[in-house]
Amino acid sequence: MAYTIYIGNKNYSSWSLRGWLLVRAAGVPFAEKLVSLNANEQAGAYKAFSPSGLVPCLVDSGPVPDTVVWDSMSIAEYMAERHPGYWPVDARARAWARSISAEMHSGFRALRVEMTMCIKERVDVRPWSPALQRDIDRVCAIWAETRTRFGGEGGLLFGAWSAADAFYGPVAFRFRTYGVQPQGAAGEYLAALLAHPYMQEWEAAALAETEVIEVDEPRIIYRDKIAS
Known about the structure:
This protein has 228 residues and is of the alpha+beta class. The chain has helices spanning 14-24, 37-43, 72-82, 91-106, 109-114, 130-150, 163-178, 184-195, 197-208, 218-221, 223-227; strands at residues 3-7, 30-34, 57-60, 67-70.
C-alpha cells in the first residue's frame, strides 16, 4: 500500500476533510497533494487525477498499481477492506453507522449550502432558514441517539473513532463557525470530535493557509446580513 490523497484547501473543503480523515485513521504513512479549489474552478485541474473531477480522490500505488478511488463513501469502504476499526464490530451498530454516514453523504443540502465550511471564521447569520434549522435538528438528533444507543468510552459516536466520525467531521467545524451549540449528548459529542487529534491536525494546517476562496467565505456570502 502506498496511499496518496488528493484534496482541496483545508480551510474550506469539507469533502476533502472526510477523505483525509479516512486515510489518516489507517495509521499508515500517506502522501497528500493539495490542489486549489480556485484552480479547479478555472481549469478543471482535478480531472488530471480524479475521474469525477472532484476531491477527495485516493490513489493506491500498492500491489495493484494506481488503483484510483474517488468519492468519500468509496474511500471509506476501500480503507475498511484493508484496515481494521473503520466500522463497529457489532452488526447492529455497524448497520447504524453505515446508515448515518450515508444519510450525511447524500443529504443535508441546506446545511451544505447555507453553512459553507470555513474553519478560520466565526459568524452569526441567524435567523436560519427553516430548511437549515431542520438539518441542524436532524444532525443533533443523530448524534444524541447514536451516543445514547451505541456510545461508550472515548466520547465519539461509537466510543472509539469510526468512519462515521469522519463523515460528521465537517459538520463539527461548520457548527463552531456559525455558533450552533447542541445540548446534552450531541453537545458532548461535538466537543469530543473537535478535540480529536486528527481534527486538530487538519485544523492547524487550515489555519496556516493563506489562499482565500471567495465563494466559500461567510463574510462575503453573508455580507449584507452581517452588515445589518
